[in-house]
Amino acid sequence: MSLWHRVRGPAFALALGGLGGAAGWLAGVPLGVLLGAMVAVGVVAARGGRLGGASIEFPQQLRLFFVPVIGVGIGGAFTPEVVAQMPGWWPSLLALCLYIPLAHLSGYAIYRLGGLPKPEAFFGAVPGGLIESVALGEEAGADVRMLVLLQFLRLILTIVAVPLIFLVLTGHAVGSASGATLAAKVALDPADALVLIAAGCIGFWVGRLLHLPAAPMTGPMAASACVHLLGWAEGVPPGWAVALTQIVVGTGLGARFIGMNGALLRRGFALASGNVAVALLLAFGFGLAMAKITGEPVTAVFLAFAPGGLAEMSLIALSLQMGIVFVTVHHVARIVLSVALAKLGARWIMPG
């Protein structure tokens, strides 16, 4: 097979995602680059994955080369002042221990009322740790297609809903790539760029070696935080790098709809919409309750609890410059707690 035959599918997907991202940005849609790419690719994928004579193919491993950009950008927000505030976050981290089972059990109840068997309902409702949830559900005999659909719709519907909610609450659209630019203290010079590239690569490798949750992002984030706190770098990835990352992430999410028939999509969408609505209402309630205790705005706590993807929620935090480290730390904790609860529940779900 020629090189062109190997790359034309991914090239078409990324080109379509780029056009969608540009349209979303020009239209001023909240988080327009990511959502535009996701919608453009998702619509074509759901209709068979072909447009004209071209077909969508997207190797999900490609995402691994770009997600570290987000981690490196968030690492630039670690300052001695932020680190000094972290001990005061224990009440909201403790509150996650209540939020996670509430969100999980409410989603389970919705899916059971919707007619799903126990395995699909239980593992489809896990509010974090998509890959681990699908793997555990497959072991328990769940329909993997429905499980993957429910988990991806949790991410996608949250990613769509949260920027719109912020638009209503704050009156400001969540930007496309402004976060990294705003976070930078100085322009990114070649020396800083080399340090950050090294930090991203080393952090990625160490994160995978240590099996950190969401290692492609958390490893580079930790390494970037270290080099910034040590004063070895002051800049962060430029806005165009964050925008390109959003196109890749959005394209990857949209491509997940390839091969899913209309009946499955409609049923999954109806069920996941109810689950996400309840989870976001719970997140907003916890935001109201915890804001006074933590000293963080209600919107920051809400974003820290919203059951979206770590990379995507962190992109929103970057864009809004709203408690970037606070939000990311809570989402890492959410993933760890969600997977731990799912593993405990697997004993109840597994037959025999």
From TrEMBL:
* GO BP field: regulation of gene expression
Q: Name one GO cellular component term.
A: membrane
* Keyword Membrane tagged: yes
Give the record's keywords alphabetically: Membrane, Transmembrane, Transmembrane helix
Name assigned to this protein: AbrB family transcriptional regulator
- Check the record and name the Pfam families matching this protein: AbrB (PF05145)
Family annotation (InterPro entries)? AbrB_dup, AbrB_fam
Record-annotated membrane-spanning stretches: 12-44, 64-83, 89-111, 152-173, 193-210, 270-291, 297-320
Q: Is the Phosphoprotein keyword given for this protein?
A: no
